[in-house]
């Protein structure tokens, strides 16, 4: 049933390569005022971007898997269970654009990727579960990474890169769980709303997330509030403060 594609395995390889480079980087590179060395920068960028691309695939796989279990068998024939981003509805919007947003603005943009036939799902509860499966996969992945960082001794560079990746997973969960049309949080409550509310959601779904991200970028109070929620949750889950070090290395090229 689950057949990871060569493309997905290649993405995993990029993340692993980044992890190796961060582990080999000089520890002092992560604490100097004028920024980390080239090896630390390269390793952190590859680790975070590769890891984020992996999480995007897992996010969409979560939607597809629970949809398959809930009655939509077409997701299998569409190749959604192969973890292959080429199978998605729009690979550019689903993979390329989120990676670009992450690289430029450190915003883990959710990607709309797999088409689910909600009419084939067994119940409203199943529809909610399918919608929640994506963001919950980000949260679970963030928790797992944070636990590994805290429990397994490792070089500071690798710990820093993994920590900022975990923070981005938590931030993606917080963003995508918001009850805004076009995001999974809305998808979870939509089956339980009135017909009028569902119609309204369908009308604003194409541009509502864009308005949200414009507010995050353009209105500091909005961005600071949402990022604050994510940071509080990350800390509550036991996330390492080395995320700050990893973030500085990841964003050094843009200073």
UniProtKB/TrEMBL annotation:
The keyword Cell cycle does not apply. One of its GO terms (molecular function) is metallopeptidase activity. Its cofactor is Zn(2+). The chain crosses the membrane at residues 6-25, 37-55, 92-116, 128-152, 158-178, 207-230. Keywords: Cell membrane, Hydrolase, Membrane, Metal-binding, Metalloprotease, Protease, Transmembrane, Transmembrane helix, Zinc. One of its GO terms (biological process) is proteolysis. It is found in: Cell membrane. It is a multi-pass membrane protein. One of its GO terms (cellular component) is plasma membrane. Belongs to the peptidase M50B family. PANTHER family: ZINC METALLOPROTEASE MJ0611-RELATED (PTHR35864), ZINC METALLOPROTEASE YWHC-RELATED (PTHR35864:SF1). This is Zn-dependent protease.
